[in-house]
Design a protein that fits this description.
- TPR repeats lie at residues 17-50, 59-92, 101-134, 143-176, 227-260.
- The protein has 282 residues and is mainly α.
- It is built from 14 helices and no strands.
- The protein has helices at residues 2-8, 14-29, 33-50, 56-71, 75-92, 98-113, 117-134, 140-155, 159-176, 182-197, 201-218, 224-239, 243-260, 266-281.
- Helix 10 (182-197) runs antiparallel to helix 11 (201-218) and helix 13 (243-260) packs antiparallel against helix 14.
- It starts with a helix and ends with a helix.
Amino acid sequence: ALNIRLATLGEVHPDTATTYNNMALVYDYQGQYEQALECHSKALRIVFATVGKAHPATASIYNNMANVYAKQGQYMQTLEYHDKALKIRLVTVGEAHPHAATTYNNIAVIYDIQGQYEQALEYYGKALTIRSVKVGEAHPDTASTYNNMAVTYKNQGQYEQALEYYGKALTIFLATLGEAHSDTATTYAGMASVYKSQGEYKQAHEYNGKALKIVLATLGEAHPHTASIYNNMANIYAEQDQYDQALEYHSKALKIRLTTLGEAHPDTRHVQAAVRRLKAAR
């Protein structure tokens, strides 16, 4: 598609930008983040030249680039690009638009990662208000907001609220996307993390198992999400003093993260540290 559009439309054309952007999304899905950013940047230069900086298409690319930076652990750049997207969207489509809700949601995710939980819940609340009105309660976007709010409640140690919100998300995902979807897997993994924090290891293993089965079928072995579930399973085994199993699953996670995220990524370093601790404890 790219070669055809370059030959017929040229480099500086909105449809060429769309192709670059779509290629970037595929690279992102595959965990090839540098290639994703390269294609997004090519798309961004074209939309600057063809439709300008204050355009919804520009905001979409900023949003996509922010998501890639987040997966690389570059949170300052993530917030910078989400802020660029939000400013454009508030001007061009308004506050009460699903695209504004998406940006509010994404900013909240970063605040949560940074431990700024009140700000995270504030921005999730903005997103949830918009989505409940614009797309309705029984929609995957609304479910995603519930899921993310559950993460924040869990991080605050409010486990009952976390399970409540995970339950809302899971009900919607199962009804709209089905069992065999990566978003459903994410919610199962989140619920497992709450059960782990409560010391309910049997339930934690059960829900991680549900999540792993889905991500292996939908994303494959060599994907950061798969690594995250392996890492979560290892942590549960470690808390149960089952160090051999813990080391096995941390090693699986480390292999994937070195390949997809690289040595310098915070997630990779966390697993490396966990492996060192386990080897010392054996």
